[in-house]
Amino acid sequence: MKIIFILYFFISASYICRRGKLKHKFTRQLTDHSTFMAFINFPLYIFSKIKTTPYLETHSVDNLNKLKDNWEIIRQEALALEQDGLISTSDKLDDAAFNSFFRKGWSRFYISWYGAEIPSAMIRSPQTTLLVQSIPNIKAAMFARLKAGSRLGLHRDPYAGSLRYHLGLITPNDDKCYINVDGEPYHWRDGEDVLFDETYLHEAINNTNCDRIILLCDIERPLKFRVIRLYNKFISYVLLKSAAAPNEIGDKTGGINKAFKYIYQIRIVGKKLRKFNKPLYYFIKYCIFLGLITLLFF
């Protein structure tokens, strides 16, 4: 049984590493979260009902036209949130999913998150919240701002059970503000939308003097068989719901984010060690990695 699991792990990890034109260096990929998530994600790619390409047609999944048709209503609520300073970051270490983005000029206001309770969304943005709730294949949604002059470097999102949808609301309408998915750029425009696979390497760039605000949604990946759809729902409920983060007091904070402020202390120590002695940092990092591999497989 252990041999079968090891074989499956290496097949799935090899598949993930070979996807797309853009790839991490081997040493980076070795410890990247996508390697460790490969055995979970592999069935979601293999049994996907739609193409597993970097970009997809928005009509390849149901109901997204409902958002685009109402983009001006959504935009008005985004403007109100922005004027009240509510599309924001968090300094409480309670948002593990996006903590690394905050210092790079990215901020958010959650509308929904994998079934977690977000009372502030209905209070602050009722029409957008009702629209999102009326579309069952939307699993998470938020307003996301990328400040002028900001850049989010190449990264992958960890879970393949969803696709990423962007609807331009308040954008520079300039080719210097764009997302690059597996080497292919898309330039945001007001009222226009795009659907892509966020598990390809991608980056976001705003080389303009204007902030960019979009509606960002996680759309459930269409899958071929009921058992795989149930598998996706289970993983989403167990793993992603626990990553819920609050907009304001009264919103739910998931278990992962409750623990994150303690776990992050290890990261702080690692940063200090890397600054003090980079070779020692990498030696310890790869020893830990090899130790985890040994525990898993031997």
UniProtKB/TrEMBL annotation:
In terms of Gene3D superfamilies, this protein maps to:
B-lactam Antibiotic, Isopenicillin N Synthase, Chain
InterPro entries referenced in this protein's UniProt entry, alphabetically = Asp/Arg/Pro-Hydrxlase (IPR007803), Asp/Asn_beta-hydroxylase (IPR051821), IPNS-like_sf (IPR027443)
According to the entry, every stretch annotated as the Aspartyl/asparaginy/proline hydroxylase domain falls at 69-222
Q: Does the keyword Transmembrane apply?
A: yes
Q: What is this protein called?
A: Aspartyl/asparaginyl beta-hydroxylase domain-containing protein
Q: Which family does it belong to?
A: Belongs to the aspartyl/asparaginyl beta-hydroxylase family.
TM annotation in the entry: 280-297
Question: Which keywords are on file for this protein?
Answer: Dioxygenase, Membrane, Oxidoreductase, Transmembrane, Transmembrane helix
Q: Which domain of life is it from?
A: Bacteria
PANTHER family assigned to the protein according to its UniProt record, in alphabetical order: ASPARTATE BETA-HYDROXYLASE DOMAIN CONTAINING 2 (PTHR46332:SF5), ASPARTATE BETA-HYDROXYLASE DOMAIN-CONTAINING PROTEIN 2 (PTHR46332)
**Is Transferase among the key words of this record?**
no
Q: Which species?
A: Shewanella surugensis
